[in-house]
Each structure stands twice: as structure tokens, then as C-alpha cells.
Protein: DRBM domain-containing protein
Organism: Orbilia oligospora
Amino acid sequence: MSPSIGPSFPMAPEKSEKSEVQTRWQRSLEDYCQKQMWQPPVWNIISDRRGGRTAWSATVVIGGVPVSARYWYDGDYLGNAKEDAAEVALGLLHKNTSQTTQSV
């Protein structure tokens, strides 16, 4: 009997302290959008073939505005790309909120 072949993508990790940390920025961004009564963030995964490998990154769209992750990642670390995009988006949102508050 030959072994069964599973899906080619990694299975979702079990809930653990490590996975909690890996989604911290994404959850913070979702909470921020909910408090502002905005639509939830929309995630887009992008890839770029580089030589013999593929690099992966993410964008998150908030209110129709796309925000890109700063870095490209190996496919095993796609969650990091989403975290990166969420962190960048929150930084921009907090910066804009702070500038608006100061100008009032």
C-alpha cells in the first residue's frame, strides 16, 4: 500500500502561543477596522518567480487602498507576509490619525 499524498500546501498550525503571536498584527488591524465601522481588511497574496524559486508577499486593502508588505518571503512563511502588511497598514493608520488629531 503506497502512502497517501496530502495537499501541497502546509496545514494550518494548531492553536498555540506561537501562532497567536504570528497573527497579532492581523487581528489588531481587523479590530481597528471594526472599531472604525469599516469593511474588514481584504488580503491579497502575490508571488514573483525569482530564478528557480518563488518569492511571496502580501497586500491588504483597507477602504479601497492597498498597502503592501515591506518584504518578500519563502512560501513556508506566507503568514509573515500578511503580518508584515498588517503592521505597515496599522502604522499608516495610526500616523494619519495622529496627524489629523494634531491639526484640529
About this structure: The chain is about 40% helix and 20% strand. Confidence is low (pLDDT under 50) at residues 1-17. Residues 78-103 form the longest helix (26 residues). Helices lie at 17-22, 24-35, 78-103.
